[in-house]
Amino acid sequence: MRDVRRDAVLREMGLAPVWRLRAGGEGAAEAIEVLPEPESAPVAAGADQGGGAWSPPAQIVPAEPVPEVRSMRAAIPVRDLIPRAAAATAPVAAPDRRDDGDPARAGRIARMGWDELESDIGACRACRLCEKRRQAVPGVGDRSAEWMFVGEGPGSEEDQRGEPFVGAAGKLLDAMLSAIDLKRGENVYIANAVKCRPPHNRTPQADEIAICHPYLARQIELVRPRVLIALGRPAALALLDAEISIGASRGRVFHRGEIPVVVTYHPAYLLRNQADKAKAWEDLCFARRLMRELAEKA
Ligand code: URA
Q1: Within 6 Å (CB) of ligand 1, which residues are found?
Q2: Domain range enclosing 183
Q3: Is the peptide bond prior to 17 cis by the omega test (within 30 degrees of 0)?
Q4: Using one digit for the tens of pLDDT, what is the confidence trace for 170-195?
Q5: Is the Cβ–Cβ distance between 50 and 70 less than 8 Å?
Q6: Average pLDDT of the chain to the nearest whole number
Q7: Which CATH number does the domain housing residue 131 bear?
Q8: Whole-prediction pTM value?
Q9: Separation CA 273–CA 202 (nearest Å)
C-alpha cells in the first residue's frame, strides 16, 4: 500500500500523529516512527478504498497520540511469543465440548461443504436468534484465506444485507485491514461467532455461541487459515472456549488446535473507545509479525 494511503487509513483509525512502519524487510514491522500531523484534512478511508464514506464523521478526526505505542513489544521477536511459552498458559480450545450437546448435528455440520453449510446456516432454527433475524449471515471472503477474522454477531445492517461487518464497525474493520495491507475478500475471510443478529444488538449469550459453534468450526476447517483473529470477547469465547479479558490477553498467542489465535478489541468497541485504537493497531502489527514468522517456517 502506498504510504500516503496507509497514513490516511491510520488517521481514520484515530492514530495521529501517524505511526508508520518503516519501509523494507521483516524488521520493518517492528519499527515505528511518528509522522507529523497532516496539514490537510484527513482523507476518508472509504474514499481511498472505494468503500463508501466513513461514518460517523467524528471517527475521522485524529485522536490524541498514544505514546505507549512507541514502547510496543516490538523489541520481542514474534518467535519468542509463539507456541511454547504462550501455549503453556493460553487456553487451548476443546471444540467438541462446545457443540451444544448435539453431537449428531455437530457431526453432520462437520461433513458439509460450503454450499450445504451456507444453506444450512440460512435455514437454521437451532436457537432463539432465528426468531428475530431477517436473514442469517454466514461469512464472507476468500475461502482459502490465510487470515480469518471472527466477530461477534451480525448487527442491523448485516442482518439486512447478509454480509458481516458492513455497518460502521465494518468500515473501521476495513480500515484496520487496510492498515496492515489486507483487504476484505483478498486472503481474508470474515465470520462471526453467531450467524444471526442478536435482538437490539445485544451480546450473544454463551449458549447461542455454543449452538452456533459447529458452523464456525466448519468454516475454520474449510478455510484452514494460518492465523485467526478474535475481535472481542465473544469471538474469543467461540474460538478458545474460554472467558478471557482482551486487555490481559493482548500480545499473546493462543491456540485453537494447531491454529494460532490473536485477540484484539472489537471494532464497535473501538468506535466508542478511540484511545484503544492504538492498541488494536499494535495487535494487528503483532499478528502480522506472527504471520510472517509462520510463513517463513512453512
Ligand atoms: N459486529 C460483529 O461482530 N459482526 C458483524 O458482522 C457486525 C458487527
Answers
A1: 151-155, 158, 164-165, 167, 169-170, 192, 268
A2: 103-297
A3: yes
A4: 999 999 999 999 999 999 999 999 99
A5: no
A6: 77
A7: 3.40.470.10
A8: 0.76
A9: 18
